[in-house]
User: Fold these one by one.
Assistant:
Number 1:
Amino acid sequence: MRITNNMIMSNTKTNINLTKQLVDKYNTQMTTQKKISKASDDPVIAIRSLRLSTNLTHIDQFVDNNIPDADSWLDVTETALKNMKTLLTDIRTQCVNGSTDTLTADDRNTILKQLTAMKSQVYTEGNSDYAGRTVFTGYRTSSKLTFQTDSQKTTYEITQSLGADSLEEKRYYTNGVTVPGTIGTATPDCDTDVKEYSYQRIRLGYGSTTSDVTLSIDGTDTAFTNYKYSSDFDPSKLGDDDIAYIQETGEFVLGKNVSTSIKGNNSKIEVNYVKTGFDADDARPEYYYNCRDISDAVTLDADNNIKRDASGNIIYDNPDKIVTYKNYDDNGERIGQPISYTVATGTELTVNTQAKDVLDTGIKRDVDELITVVQNAINAHDKVSQIEGMMKQEQYADKDSQAKLKTYLDAAKQEADYADNNMQKTYGQYITKFDNHMNKVNLALTNSGSTQSRLTLIKNRVEEQKTTVEELKSTNEDRDLSDIIIDFYAMYNAYQSSLTAASKANGNTLLDYL
């Protein structure tokens, strides 16, 4: 085969160019310390690099954002739960103090002050938030658990389901003693026949309801007598088969046969009621019950009474403005509202605790009742002191005034004894109730702690996975600088040699041999 000078020149330029390309390749690698600079350099490395980069991006999202966010949410929740536990423990301590039978006036006043101070704090921790998102309110993270101000025109229709275990004993009293301003012929007779009655009752989540109340026991609508105020209810007239409802306190008082039947049949109870007006720090019903906010759908008069038709039914002026909330499905099962974070590939972690699993609406009502009971005891003893003071006054030193005051004093002491007995029993009863409240908080703390432990394990695993992927990505893409330098100088020398060879190969022509 004949080789011409043109062929030699062409092949020489081709070889020099290929060598030059390799020099440029290693020079680029020396700068970037990467095996390839574009996909066409090595498609296999490029595809693997894309896959590993995508995987590493996901892992970085888990490690840098999702896991820290979930961890912070759990930290906020745990702190709030611990504060709740401390508050409930303090209230329980007051229950223990109040359940003793050796209380002095100072003891009762101290208990009253302590409970009054703690009352407004009951749901405060339920408003805890992380980065502006309330942690105990399910999906409605932009809203607080409680009303922030007094909302006297806010109106809800509430459906509350209860069981036989919601029955509890409560004592009711008649004929409280009235301390007379003066004693004389015109002094009205004082009620001195103070009596105590004990009944089972069902207490709703809220008091001060309207008269729009229906009671269903085991699916059957049940009749009852409606009273607006506690003072309207005469416990001595409640028959064994009767039910009384007191709007002021939001409680059904059950006759003995009724309560026995409910307990014996383990009955299911459903109450539908309407409440207008909420105080600041009251828990919002939409986080606890199936309910409807009808505030913008009804009209209230100057006394905040709902506008009604001639039959007494509520008039809905703007029914399209009714807002419906559901916390339980048609089978009575709780509807969960989990806030979840994706903390690893294919792994989601629920981090939130819902208020209805920790703080029920009964806690504040329990504190209210504890305050009322101790206040009644204080008032009863004040009556005794007032009458005893009157008996020491010279103007009542006559025999008739002393006899009358003695009658009042005996009745006042009887009322004070009943009040002390009621306080002792109620506070003793509420020790168990607050134990149950704390059990819920303890369970939530345990669940939060176990979730945090699981998150820590996942975090460790994901961080190890990140290290592994980074190593794989480095192995796939990166080159050691010393190796690049060796290859570069080898190819650079080859390039220089090819230039030298080319100059000599093209230096001679056929004419030199003629």
Number 2:
Amino acid sequence: MKNRWSQDKKNECVEEYAQEYGEDLALRTYASGLIGEEKGLVLHGGGNTSVKGTFTNVLKKRISAIFVKASGHNLANIEPEGHPGLDLDYLLQLRTLSELSDETMVNELLTHRFNAQAAPPSIETLLHAFIPKKYIDHTHADAILALTNQRDGEKTVRDVLGNDVIILGYVKPGFALARAAVEAFEASPLSKGMVLMKHGLLTWGKTAHESYERTIELVTKAEQYLVKKKTRPLKVRITTSPETAKKRYLKVAPILRGLLAIPTKNPDWPFKRFILRALITKEVLNFVDSDRGKKIALTPPLTADHLIRTKALPLWVDDPQYEDEVKLREQVSNAITEYAKKYDEYFERYSKKMKTGLNRFDSMPRAILIPGLGVICSGKDVVEAEIVRDITAQTLDTKVKIAAMATYEGLSEKHLFEMEYFSLQHAKLDREDGLTLQRSVALITGAAGAIGAGVCQELLEKGCHVAVTDLPGDSLNSLVDELKPEYGERVIGIPLDVTDPKSVAKGFDMIIDTWGGIDLVVVNAGIAHVSSLADMDPNAFRKLEQVNIEGTLHILSEVSRHFRVQGTGGDIILISTKNVFSPGAKFGAYSATKAAAHQLARIASLELAEIDVRVNMVSPDAVFSHGDRKSGLWAEVGPDRMRARGLDEKGLEEYYRKRNLLKAKITATHIAKAVLYFATRQTPTTGATIPVDGGIPDATPR
């Protein structure tokens, strides 16, 4: 385990934070960040750290304080505010109680923060408070868990780490663990740390540096032991290349995504979908293709902290028939059904014995292991799916190390259920936050133009995962660069030529590879040409025909096939034009080809309704730009229109504003709002057109 401590970076952190927060908390922030950078120590909100000091209240009285990591905060990017302060003297008095319920404990923690607006502190705050050391680090180090999660684990820990480390048998986090830990500490006060069996590692010190270095020292000892004890490697029965596995994933992902979707009672949103992330590496493929892979995989998680993300067990799909799609679907469906049945039985066994305080969770697996493919991880959005993937990767690696030297032994099923339905753990999880499209994936064609960019931004604001597609080049790249800083992994850029069926198919594959499937397609790509019919260049007309008609057809064909495989319905929205209903002179090529595209969408609404795919149209007029992003169509059409009317660019925009009934300037955001109306299924509507033109009587759909 690499020691990341740097005196220079430590000094920089102290200089940045000490004046406002004090040197103790500045050092706590620095050392916590070092821990969070190392995936072998903590993952995604796991682990917790603390420092004891003082706090000056409004009465100017200095009182004892503890600053402990907030529940669910990520140590990798934690700021001083991520360690809310609490009244330490009061918390220490809680030790005199013989028992303290979880709910009461949380109330005491919340009501004894110094700042009522601060984040809720860790559920293990009392563990940090009761142990009388200034700095305390609590990690879920993989190497330590590899020692604790095996038969005769306590003996192994003692042999490896020595007598100056306390070993504490598993105790559920909360008040009981805090009391057990401090009693163990008082029996051995000179110890440098404590191993919590099947849970993690505690270290402490007078300084942040001392506590951190003890963590590194003990974890390194465990890692060195694991390397030496590797005597029973897995035997790989078949060899699958990552390239082959990735091709199989493209076939399996839409099937799996559809089968994982949870039915609802809402006819407009009949399923709660999942976002998928694949874990395909040579190491993972060797694992799923090995002689003991299934036996090792179907064991409890390394620590209960992972359980709330991954569920107690993954799903294993036996002997997948990749060459027979019908058989493959049946196999995956049967495996999911059996998994759900076993989860239901597990819930029934233990829910009657304890008050859970929570509603029942869904029965779907979060990690699916498939020989010849790897692991597919799921979550309500890409962030959650990424967390499952990271935890699964670390878990499999650690379990393989254990299997090479001993027999894996995790938490009992009873303890697993206690932690899965432990209300305080779930404070770490992000709730469904009302973002209607949080579980959805959208593809936007022609996204680099004004309307496309506006649609992308509006969908992203509603939580959607958005594939920004357009011809390769600066326009596409710059849009992705604009969106990435705010929307992160929920936006990807894909070069796509709608006139080329192979390019369209490749674009779909890239989206499936990234998120598992597609739920919404906005057909927006289109080009224009100004010419009278008498002067029309047939080649220019054919170019519009290729983009506006054939491009629409290629997208509709590909998405129709995808929606049938995925089986959870979907939405298609065509950005049409007022010219379909009210064409303009010298605009025949555009008007005619867009009318054909409009008609294709109407036909799609007839053909796809049986699989709950809604196809609708938005008919805009005269959108000139979106921010600094100019409309490509108006770059083509504008000069002719300006010459014909003797206007400059601003004058032309004003002309189009005044010609509609509402005297409204039509923006890309207005178009995006209309798209959103259909995309969020506000009404049971298909085959319809929303005009977004400020009211042009001749363009009213009829």
Number 3:
Amino acid sequence: AVGPGGRVVTLSGERLTAQRVTERFEAGQAVTATYDVSLAPPPSEGGERDDLEIVVTAPPIRRQVVSTEVGADQARRIPGTQGDVLRVVENLPGVGRSAVGSGQLVVWGAAPEDTRVLIDGVPVPRLYHDGGLRSVLPGDLVQSVELAPGGYGAPWGRGIGGVVQATTRPLDGDGVHGALSADLYDAAVNARASLGRGVRIGAGVRRSHLDTLLGAVNDGQSVSSLFPVPRYFDAQARASWDVSRADRVELTGILSRDEIQRSAASPDPFRVTSDTRAVGFERLWLRWRRTLAGGAVLTVTPWFGRDARAETSRVGAVETSLERESFVGGVRAQWQGNVTSILNLSVGADVELNASSLRRRGSIALPAREGDVRAFGQPPPDQVAADNWSTTFVGVAPWLEGELALLPGKLHVTGGVRVDPYVLRVSRRTPLEGDLPALGLLRESFTVEPRLALRWTPFERLSVKVAFGRYAQPPQPEDLSAAFGTPTLGLAQATHALAGVTVRPTRSLSVEVTTFVSWSEGLAVRPPAESPRLAESLAATGEGRAYGAQVLVRQELARGFLGWLSYSVMRSERRASPGDAWRLFDYDQTHVLTALFTWEIGRGFEVGVRFRYATGMPRTPVTGAWFDATRDRWQPTFGAQNADRLPDFIQADARVAKTFRLGSTRLEVSLEVQNVTNRENPEEVVWSADWRRRAYITGLPLLPVLGARWTF
């Protein structure tokens, strides 16, 4: 019942001197305040009584200047997500719409691989399973999810895009609790139990069955050969122990598996394509949290895991395969507390290790990179290569961040710095050549990344914010091949700057407007020469820029109603070298609009609607064709790069749910209809063999998804 903003807490008692303390509350965030009080002894008759000193220790909420956080209970109700909490990220401002089935995150015009995904501060390689239908972490394990598209603080780094942070739900409560759920896509079960003496355990598992259902009604064939049906599996196990009132230890393990296959037939044998991909990862982390005297908090999280990926792509007779296995690990440590009444300090270190082994065979142009001028279905060049290599990355990044509360709490100045040295070893700096031994490479780098943010709240319902920061990102292991990339690639770096204002007309309604700009340099791109020098198939000369504005009108849950309207207008551009002309980024989307609401209409019924609009992604137009007699096929002639666009995307989704109370348990039955208007949204351009006629691959048609969830 406490609304956002400054609220006065009064402490009084028979042997206390009355004190008043102001605490700040923000929607979706919990405030933990500890008041250390020493009672004065009863005064002796006729003696004097001293005033009592009360020490208030309440570390302020640590939030990014621009971020959107959604609690799990609200996110589960959002139409279009089928109850998947983490899929709410697709609907937040600053996030571009990804192509159907890709599950990529395009945040503020950055490449998908530039945005970091963290669970309890532990990095994971992806947020969604293949196909984008489900996230890698079930909603019952999620407490909240937060997106910081840019301008975030010193604790986070090694990425030049945004940061998505998922926080797991504490294993609180006594007895045995859990949930069973199933719908068109998958089935899941999870349970948690209290073992007494502060020990609690939990586990869950989920598996897709969409491929089995479609195989039974479609003779084993996918609904569309161009939209493959994903197969995925994930499992989780957790344990927590309240060692004392000040100490809690949590152990969490998760694993994720994906398999996907697709093929596209063609009368031209050179254009028959197929794609097979298997992706998986595991993570195990231990989080120790201690509340120290004075209210400071110490958190230490050691973690380790493994990532595995195997891909095989074939176009005609040309096949390309890539296999990667990475062993990763690290530790995050942070101390946070009040140093004085106006200064809160955060000190920590972020250590990360990545040891990868890679093997690649086939075309030098598959898979296509951002910036490649190609058309869907176009056969790749005939050049092939092969390479086996390994990389080892070690980074140790200490950071320091302080927050000053000035002008009686109306002005908050947050300044920080992140020092990010790293060592990178590459096993081979030259391509394979006979029996010659490999000549390795060892590189060291050192970056200093300052961060600064200001938040001014002249009135209770009005705040103004600005932020600036520098960010760096190490090269991808796939790009360090001597045959397919460049082993000597260095850091990509970016600068973020933003300004915005937030107005709260009511306690539950907020309007937030943010403008932003980002610059990036040192991006890995293909060099202009058709025959680059040995072991220099990529060059770190690429530059990028993105700028725009975003608006979020958000109604928090009030009287059974919640919803928001998010709109982003932006422009994202790239160029291969400083002297080149700017071109549109492959993932550029000028306009992205999402409007949604959910309403509890009573008697256990709930309805919701979501509407999405997005500008089509850029494509390079085909202006003609010529016959290649040496290869006996037609080759396209291209116009200006990314001068064309796919048609706009428009889709409406609806959801209705009914909750039944069965004793102490609950059963929720929901029906969600995606694309209720059955609009054919183009997702890609396909061409005839002679490049004279074109058509579109369209997204999913009207799709009803019936589901049930029983909680106990």
Number 4:
Amino acid sequence: SLQGFNTYVQDGIVLQVSSNPQLSVTLAVGVVSEQVTVTANTTMVETHSTGIGQVVDNQRVVELPLNGRQATELIFLAGLATSAPAGDLNTNKNFPTVTISVAGGQANGMTYIMDGGTHNDPFNNLNLPTAFPDAMQEFKVETSSLPARYGHHAASAVNIITKSGTNDFKGSAFEFNRDYHFNARNAFAATRDSLRRNTFGGVLGGPLVKNKAFIFGGYQGQIEKTNPPTSISYIPTRAMLNGDFTAIASPACNGGTQRNLTGGFVNNQIDPARLSPIARNFAAYLPVDQADQCGRVQYGIPQNNTEHRALTKLDYMLNNQHSLFTRYLYAVYDNPATYDGKNVLTLSRTGQNNQAHSIVVGHNFVLSSFVNALRVTYNKTLNDRPLPEFFTATDLGSKVYSPLPGYMGINVTGNGFAVGNGGTNPGYFDSDSWQLADDVDFLKGDHQISFGGNWIHTKIMTLNNRPTNGAFTFNGQSTGLSLADFMMGTLSGGFLQGNPVYDYDDHDYIGAYVQDDWRVSPNVTVNAGVRWEPFIPLRNTYSWASNFDQARFNAGIRSTVYPQAPAGLMFPGDEGYPGRGTTESKMAQFAPRLGAIWTPGGDGNTSIRAGWGVFF
């Protein structure tokens, strides 16, 4: 309003996460009593930022069908997003999530922000578990030439907002049930699937004090069961336990080809006295009586799992300028490994128990054309890889040292079996991260100035016991049949054993930026900014890190800290080693951003944008 002009009123304006609608207001000459009222949703064409993005609002989050009700699946709707190979990113070491490539970027090159706080899992740089659909207000996926306030990862930014309570108590309850009894068989599958998934929960929000304090909370649980897929292995039969390998060497068990034991054995018979007592002890935990004459046995490994997510959020309005909020999210995923003490083959995988805690505290200060947003974040993950105890090689009678109770690794190649190999070992993969972030925006004439900083401190604590109790391999090199090598205890593929692998690391991320969005004319905006994003290497907490230098190796120089280490290896404390880090820092890393936006006609219905930027 202005003296001598009509009052102008426009409602129906929807402000979405990380969007910048522009309102062009024209005041006509008139008298004070006259008023122009416009009731319409303002255009959401981006006229401020050069980034490419799309908001996924609450209606789509809640109503679109989601496999497992994972809201991150909706990132694929935002465009430029495709499924990416999980590789070693999404394993039994972390909370299961989706791997996505946006605009050709790496799956672990996405910045996840929830309620203004960092929400990346520091172990694999994928996302931590997010709010479930009914507790999520909206989110936006942005990529390309983003403004200088975005950094940390180069591919894209996913900005998530959770729901808050209002002046009215509102809530809902839900249950989704998927049962294979109601499913048709896939045309390309031999049998119908056996999935049974029950997802249930609810949300409730309302005022603690009208117009002052609000609360919102919600819970989602999921129980998933399925008949285990059929696994096939080949194990010693009763005949093999007595030294008779006639059947397994016959054409019936070898695709029509007769095989014979090498090494001087007659008629595919081995003197029982030459069989390993350790192998016999191992066979006591195999379903020998269920195997056919070739040693073929079928069994199932259950994959039943449960998941629970709970969220609560408090909002408090101190006054018209100051507001506070805090949000807490807890998620737990449990996929246990089972062992009945009879068939050790069922321990071809570990269990998985993942927990995540995430808390954000925020303060917003708004004064006329000045906005300050402060966020303090703490995230904690507890990723346990439990393995039910069975036995060690020492328990079976071997003289191999077994520092941990209840497991070993064995691989009988070809037509054989495997237990406890690769990642099938007990361990944990935990992390803590703290964040302090502050963003300031203010208007001065035709300029919107933005600046801020972001500090994230991360600790990773892991224990991987892959070779700790020893891994035995039998490949048939001695007798021509891997099961025969196993029964004789003749290691033909090698033996591997090593120390437990501890990684206790810490890391600091720092980012700071400044940007000016200059409205050159009513329909042209130019923005320019720069982000300082130094590379600070990972540091090993207990100085277990090492660094290999080719020149030192060529010169035969050995470590003074660990003189028995191979030449070329340096450790913290050696001359020339880069402190506690794994490599040298790069402090002078600056990421400039430039862009221009043109809105033909100035009506806000069309925008043409161009941008350029450097991202680390």
